[in-house]
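User: My collaborator sent over this chain with a note saying "see what the structure looks like." That's all I know about it. Can you take a look?
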Amino acid sequence: MISVIIPVLNEEKSIERLLKQFDNCKESKEVIVVDGGSTDDTVEIASKYAKVVHSEKGRANQMNAGAKVAKGEVLWFVHSDSIIDSESLTKIEEAISKGYIGGGFSLYFYDDSSLFMKFVSITSNWRAKYLGLFFGDQGIFVRKDVFNSVGGYPKIELMEDWELAAGLKKVGKMTILKTPLGTSARRFKKGGALKTLMLMHKIKILYVLGVPTSKLAKLYREDQ
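Assistant: Without extra context I'll predict from the sequence alone. Here is the result:
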């Protein structure tokens, strides 16, 4: 069984659409929504479709909390603004059966079809394919035993996906599925596409150079 883990914080506008997609999937699964302290109707909406658990705010904290109560042999971490493919769960099962310990999906932006955003998605997928580094909007999935063996998501304020993927690829083979996973370009639209992309690259470079994630998180929030 696959445990789908969705971290949320005030996502009443998007969470029901995603949960309805999972509701239509017939494969064996459990859906866990982990709330980090929403003040809107997120929890009320989510409780109609999924198991809701509460945790300290922060995606790493929330995803670890979801993994802790998950009953599935495979964990799939999905952002609340995602659009999944109807065969996603089947493709995860196939990848695990082939010996991969985990992986992610081929990212695309469902609300912006511009050439620039296509460039962003293509290069993101190249990064995952050739460097084995996945971010959360690519829908990271992993065997639960392997996830636990590496200690789960590191308790850092930013770059937790990068750090998890870096640890996982040392343990076993990761794969990027051809199956698409849609995400929103809302941050790019709000902050300006080029400006936002440059900020993300800046944060990655500073992280590699050893800048504390607390400072990177502040930089990230200031641009929102």
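A starting point for your reply to your collaborator: The chain has ten helices and seven strands.
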